[in-house]
Amino acid sequence: MGPYILRRLLLMIPTLFGIMVINFALTQFVPGGPIDQVLAQLEGEGDAFATISGGGGETGNIEIEGAYQGARGVPPRFLEELEIQFNFARIVCAEGYTGIPDLDAEECVSERIPALERFFLMLWDYVRLDFGDSFFHSESVMELVVDKLPVSITLGLWSTLIAYIVSIPLGIRKAVSDGSRFDTWTSGVIIVAYAIPGFLFAIMLLVLFAGGSYWQIFPLRGLTSPSDVWNTLTWWQKILDYLWHIALPVTASTISAFATLTLLTKNSFLDEIKKQYVTTAKAKGLTQNRVLYGHVFRNAMLIVIAGFPAVFVSVFFGASVIIETIFSLDGLGRLGFEAAVTRNYPVIFGTLFVFGLIGLVVGLLSDLMYVWIDPRIDFETRET
């Protein structure tokens, strides 16, 4: 198993490289850029989208007679300084110049850095785990990611864990009682829950239980109480306070995962129950629980385990933006969305790198769970 894990870890390198190449290339064609954002704010327009009519690149270089769109009246020197600040240009001085590189020096000028060179410079920084600094925050990207990561991990792990804890026993019960009234009405409830959009369910929870029009039972925002209250709590009170705060957002992000997992578990168990070895086990006098959990469970759970990465990634990546926004949680999903809107490229690439790495690690853990569930599986002897 060791060589297989090593191969998977090594394969993460080209996979992450591909993710960064695709996303970096896409930014070359997305209209607007951080410079356009700054210019739009200076002109009181709020954002750059009002001044964009098409075209553009990573630097937001929608040019009219050599100037950024909306930049008329802005001194060219100011634009040069912005490009240098955002690492789209550098100061180049004449040969033999011994002073500090500065645009004020007659021997120095600004030079645009080609996109390909910027990309490889970024990769070299990533190899050294240097994700750069945010354009619009006074923090490094790594500090921002580390600060926001606990919120997203909380939503992803708790939601996935609860979904599996509820869905697997429910799916087994539905398979055993297939066609019964219990199977019918639970299927109806699951389908209705799946049909409700996550953001709508989150808003409904806020209205009903967070001081909307009905009951003030749960807090509106945050993972814990304010620091002045949190610091006065005992360790067990802190645990209860934490669970009290995450109850609504975790419920909202979990609701859509129940249907897929429950029906997947039910169908997987139904397929196994109909096989010959189950009939043989029953003929030998084994109890139903012994047959289900001693023989069927291991085989039926393989397909359920295979769906773990998809469930975790969908909750961690997909639902996090909406849930974090509605419940005022400051996590990676919200950070990535705001970075995309403001064209904060270091944060965009940093969060994409973290999301991609987490997805790959979860996929590897899923394979290890295969082996744990069924030791007959041997990835090392599998042909590649």
UniProtKB/TrEMBL annotation:
It is found in: Cell membrane. Keywords: Cell membrane, Membrane, Transmembrane, Transmembrane helix, Transport. InterPro entries: MetI-like, MetI-like_sf. Its main location: membrane. PROSITE patterns: ABC_TM1. Signal peptide: none annotated. One of its GO terms (cellular component) is plasma membrane. The keyword Transmembrane helix applies. GO terms for biological process: microcin transport; transmembrane transport. The keyword Membrane applies. It is a multi-pass membrane protein. Residues 149-370 form the ABC transmembrane type-1 domain. It comes from the Bacteria. Belongs to the binding-protein-dependent transport system permease family. This is ABC transporter permease subunit. It comes from Rhodophyticola porphyridii.
